[in-house]
Every structure is written in structure tokens, then in C-alpha cells.
Amino acid sequence: MRVLGICALSVALAGCAIQRSQVAQEAKASIVGMTKEQVFTCMGPAASKAAEGATEIWSYPSGNGYRSTTVVAGTDGNFNATRSGNNVSGTVNTFGSATGVSTARFCTVNIVIQGGVVSQVNYSGPTGGLLTGGEQCAFAVEACAKKQG
User: Fold this and answer.
1) C-alpha angle with apex 109: 66 to 130, nearest 5 degrees?
2) What global pTM score does this model have?
3) CB-count exposure of residue 28 (10 Å: 0-12, 13-18, 19+)
4) Is 16 helix (H, G, I), strand (E, B) or coil?
């Protein structure tokens, strides 16, 4: 019974991630053509801005702090882990062993504005899973997608 509950929860969470991925993809198209005033209204002030001539780039961090951890167990009496950025590693003697890798997902949304109008929307970072690319970007852009839809 417990396994069924875990499976149901996993399917529900995957469904949410897929829905956020779709919102992020639709938002890319709906934000293009907006004025910078409209972007400011639905996304708020940018975390950072850059300008080159008549082109501006507004950047917004996005994500829900999703972190995935993979653990592989062994029997050699050592626990090995390494930390590099979002990945973890080190060595501890135990009665068994396991190796874990933890990764975080996030997105940086870059809005390219030329002549006061959005010409491009780009997403960067580890934005989602294999089937849910861009899902971490939805948190920043969903208000603009709803405004247009």
C-alpha cells in the first residue's frame, strides 16, 4: 500500500513539472513583442540589467530550490563523497558504503529588449529534467504567460 502511495505522489509531482515546462515554453512565445513596461508589470524589477546600444538584457533568477540526490550503496566499508559546486563527495569508514550526488535545478531567464520591445527570451542553467526542460523557468515567467493568455 505504501508503494502505491509513493508511486501516486511521484506521478503527481512529475505532472506538475511537465505542466511548468509547458508554461515556460508558451511564455517564451507570449513575452516576445511585449513592451518593457509590460514585462516590468508582470515580472517585476530584473535582478540584473545589461545594455549595449539600443539593446537591453534583463535577467531574472527562477526556481523552487529543487534538489535531486542519487545514492549508490556498496559493501567496501567506505563512504565516498565529493563536493564540487552542487555535487558532494568525501571519505568516511563505515560498516557499509554509499556514494551520493546531489544536484540543484534552477533557471536564469534573460529577456532581450530592442527598441523598447522584447525580441527574445532565453533560458539558461540546469532548467529541468529530460522531459521537463525549462520547468524551473516557469516560476519567473508564469505571470506574463497568464497575462497574455
Assistant:
1) 50
2) 0.63
3) middle
4) helix
